[in-house]
Every structure is written in structure tokens, then in C-alpha cells.
């Protein structure tokens, strides 16, 4: 059995579940790119792939992840996955996804390449389903990493084959999104995606900043903790840079030194850090 997830945090929690139930034993692999943001035109062609890669290269510059671009090769991961499934008649892949746009976009990008393996591909979409948290209370997780390992043992019962109908219709939905070639995707419900303007997150990002100076990592952490619809920290920083260029906020420091010493505040606010932020 091969388990496939779309976030690094999901790998550890799933491994904990496997350690509790040997019937889940198998390799865990991750699709690393965040297909919820960025260009998607001709994504399966060389030119489209390179355009997307160049876009990420620009965003990752001076970030803590700058050296990781060459470590992300989802096409290679999928080629190996297909090879494993073709060479082993008994092998299956379980695609795990939570109810969030990151996972759903990753699912669409992936399954559009697996049609010839219909019958060997199972999906577990934890869509609007209740689970118990560490206090024994019911909640509705949006990300797999929010689920307790013991609860994964219940979730495994939800595994089902991706149907022939889904292999026919879902790639058409994804093709439409790719042809729109926007920069932000939004999950309307179920697996229904919509293309949004690149400024989709700007209003919420601005609402979560103050006129008190903050180091950039602190501001990012606060934004991520409060955002209703999550996106990645690298994309948030890219929008902060644009908003700073427009004069709607102020960022000081030298980007080439990295994120840790950059200081951010709303336009007109003080760039003097308080004692807590000076640590």
C-alpha cells in the first residue's frame, strides 16, 4: 500500500496511525507543490511547468525555503508512483485529503495523470466529517494534521476507489481551472473550485496587521493563526511586498538577509519594535 498526502505535517500524523494499525502499513509519499496558488497554464507541458517553476523561484528568493526549490519534483514522484503501480499488480495508492483548497487542488493535479490505473487508486476525502479532538470533543477538521492518530483508524473505513466517472469528469473541471490560469483557487464546497483574483487574500492580510511594529516572522505567524482560509507563508510574504510597494504598509530591512530581521507595520505606524519583538 502507498499512502499519498499533500502536506509534510500529514506524513507524521499518518505514520503514527500506521504504527497503531499494521493493516495500514505502507510507504508515505508527499506531493509538495501548492497548486492552490500560482500559474497553471499548460501545467503538464514543459513550458507551463517552467513558468510555474520560475514563479516559485521569484517568490522563494530570500525566504527560509530558498534552497528547497530543487528538492520539489512532483512530476518525478508521480512517474515513480505510476511505475510502482504498474509493476506490482497488488499495489494500491490511497490518496488522503482534507477539506481544504491545498489538498483538493493537489488531488486534481495528481488524479488527472492516473486514469490508466483506475481500480488501483483509492481516495479518502474527509469532507465535512466530525472527529474527536484530544479532549474528546467533536470537531470538523479541515486538515489531516488536526486529526488524532487514533481517529485515522476510523477514517480508513472511508477509503473508496476513484470511479471511472470521476476519472472522466474531474480532469475536465481541473482543465477548466488551468485554462483560466488565475493565481488563486478557492474551494466553494465539496470538490468545487473557483478561480479568484491574486488580491483575494489582501484584505484579510491587512486586517490582521497593526500599527505596532512586528518582525516579519511574528506577523506571518499571527496572520496564519487567524486566517479563515489558509494559504502558505511564502505567498503571504509575496502579497505583503506588493502591498508595501503600493504604500499600504511599510517593510524595513534588507531582504537579502532573510525574513528574520525584516520589520513590518501598517502605513503610518512606528517601525520601532517593542521589547518582546526585539528578542
Account of the protein in words:
The protein contains 9 helices and 12 strands. Helix 1 (8-20) crosses helix 5 and helix 4 crosses helix 6. The chain folds into 2 domains: 2-176, 3-Layer(aba) Sandwich (Rossmann fold), CATH 3.40.50; 202-278, Arc Repressor Mutant, subunit A. The protein is α/β, with parallel strands linked by helices. The strands form 4 sheets. The protein has a 5-stranded mixed β-sheet, with helices on both faces. A 3-stranded antiparallel β-sheet has the order 10-12-11. Strands 5-6 form a two-stranded antiparallel sheet. The model has no long low-confidence stretch (mean pLDDT 91).
Q: How is this fold's topology laid out?
A:
Elements: E1 2-5, H1 8-20, E2 27-30, H2 46-60, H3 74-87, E3 93-98, H4 101-111, E4 121-126, E5 131-132, E6 138-139, H5 149-155, E7 160-161, H6 164-180, E8 184-189, E9 192-196, H7 202-207, E10 214-215, H8 216-226, H9 233-245, E11 249-252, E12 263-266
CATH C-level of the largest domain: Alpha Beta
Mean pLDDT across residues: 91
Number of strands: 12
Cα-based radius of gyration, to the nearest Å: 20 Å
Shape: globular
The major pleated sheet works out as: 5 strands, mixed
* Low-pLDDT residue spans: none
Strand order of the largest sheet: 2-1-3-4-7
CATH architecture of the largest domain: 3-Layer(aba) Sandwich
Which topology of the largest domain does CATH recognise? Rossmann fold
Total number of distinct structural domains = 2
Assign the structural class, choosing from mainly alpha, mainly beta, alpha/beta, alpha+beta, or little secondary structure: alpha/beta
State the helicity in percent bands. Answer: 25-40%
> What fraction of the residues are assigned to beta strands by DSSP?
15-25%
Distance between the termini: 47 Å
